[in-house]
Fold:
Amino acid sequence: MRKVAIVGVGHTPFSFLAEKTVVELFSEAAMEAIISSDLKAKDIKAMFVGNVLGDFSEGQGMVQSFAADEIGAKNIPASRFEGACASGTMAIRDAFMWVASGFYDIVIAGGVDTTSKMGTALGTRTFAMFTDSHYEYPSGLTFPGAFGMLCHLYSVKYGVPLAKLKRQMALVSVQSHKYGQYNKLGQLHNEVTVDEVLSSAMVTSPLQLYDCCPFSDGAAAIVLASEEAARKLTDEPVYITGVGQASSGRYSSQKEYLPRLRARDISVKQAYDMAGIKPEDVDICELHDCFSIASIIAVESLGFAEFGHGGELWENGEADIRGRIPINMSGGLKSKGHPIGATGASQVCDIVKQMRGAVEAQRQVEDVKIGLTDTLGGDGIICNLVLEKGW
Amino acid sequence: MRKVAIVGVGHTPFSFLAEKTVVELFSEAAMEAIISSDLKAKDIKAMFVGNVLGDFSEGQGMVQSFAADEIGAKNIPASRFEGACASGTMAIRDAFMWVASGFYDIVIAGGVDTTSKMGTALGTRTFAMFTDSHYEYPSGLTFPGAFGMLCHLYSVKYGVPLAKLKRQMALVSVQSHKYGQYNKLGQLHNEVTVDEVLSSAMVTSPLQLYDCCPFSDGAAAIVLASEEAARKLTDEPVYITGVGQASSGRYSSQKEYLPRLRARDISVKQAYDMAGIKPEDVDICELHDCFSIASIIAVESLGFAEFGHGGELWENGEADIRGRIPINMSGGLKSKGHPIGATGASQVCDIVKQMRGAVEAQRQVEDVKIGLTDTLGGDGIICNLVLEKGW
Structure:
């Protein structure tokens, strides 16, 4: 298989109640990615779009087909991917294969959603469709509820007192806002303190308001090209050297693993093995912090901390900008926002910009050569990508 | 790229108001495909599922992840594809690439929907999301409306008097029911006459009830394998030798082509060129007859008739079982039913069975070596597959 490079990236602002539609938002991100790749829309041979709720938020299905037409990439194959919050990464992983195989030289992939248009309450209920709707949801389970239960399970299983865990979780949110405030494309630009997190409104015990990411609208896209095509277009290609994906089914079917997600263990191993790297080789990571506890659970399976010790990365500054493994320097889902289908693509965009030294100075990590993205969808689809600086 | 074969197929009954859920239906089709391939679920390395409305009909998103878990294909990558009615074919085309590239040896692909659970009125309104929801749908456009207008346009553009066109359309439905009555897995088992079609209830002028396919519930799946793996599993591999996909955007953006769909011209050319065949080489075709007029429009772009002369295939018996190009011997969407995400996969299943001499005697075409599937999604995603008998 051929090497596949990211040539250009595009990213709309993430916001609450965007005025634009899903088709318009994705088109905006796509055109930025295409123009910054020194290409025209007609050079794009296929489109891969993660979109979860365009049909629910705007009554618009099949957004990819309309977006391809909108940007002038007439008649190209355009596919929509849905794996809940992992949809954008799923679309990129799939686009990777169509280029790696030699079928296409230049394609575009990314994601979009306008989830905030449903409001937080309806959005939360709607999004509960990505649990098992016949056994889990009727018991009252929504995703805040599920992650609340994972907190309690984590505390018991690893013997971390809940008060200590909650302080670690607060530190996760504090760091996300600390860097997210500088991300011009992010949604929230306020700093928060540990005390503010711990005194914010209770959402679902023990998760409080500042443990939870917001609903957001936005889009992100990247242009992928074969190595040969990429070298003609940019001096700064970022290679996708590892891809991983796995699924878990409903929570009850993975109860012997929880709070650890079996799909993440498998997915990230695929990505690391394919790239030929180990966790300690990773210079930066954007991971799926839909809730603060999710970050702590994630870093353990990603190999950055022992199981039961994830929170210490934030206590010790190891996840900070000059730490061992800087995490979510974009602000993460918590501060940058979480337009569901766009999130995975946004993670990729930010790591590419980090490698190019192109993010705001206050959140720029020095000398990023290898990056990892981690996206979690619903009850347990995980997608991981390893990105490597190519110059 | 490697050759890719279909090893086994699975197909639930298509019905109105199935008792099973989307996850259960897809699992049933998947297990039949796996068992008939002499495999176990653990041999399947990835799953690709077309599903359009699981979230609307049952409040179940991400059906693929739960289905993979349900059948015991634990933790495999499972992706959902949405391109309206073309979703199932889109999933198969994508699965093809993951095997052709050498990444996976054995995967499963297919589709499922339980559209009828919404009822015809709500289903029609919901499905209108696959037109442009900001410009087209608010004008009152649903898909019966769109195809009704295409009838009038066809009549005017090609100078076929509407009365003549309506009789040709009726012949399409008559033939679909003629063969569909024998398809044990189909939804409708009654024969209809031209007079019955032309005296059935008016839906949207000039489309009458028997010009329209029903809403249906059901699933279909196929196991795809590399040539090497397939040869160990079956003496009757069916190769996918050509794939095509294209999109059109909203109807208004393709108005210079209509009633011809530009995406179909492009998609089928990709598939024919890749397979190295011409339309006259095709022995059997399953095409997207969501409305009777859709069949007439389709055969022209597929190269089976001159533009403006599609209906003559049914007038002259050329589309019949012993004709030049037997079409929709399964009963098509009209008689077999149309569980949206499953339709493309169902087309593939039926052609594989035709090649294996495994369909009901009354609808078995002799000596099928090359088959073509054609699936249309929403405002204009088209997917085509060329299948070739490998023994």
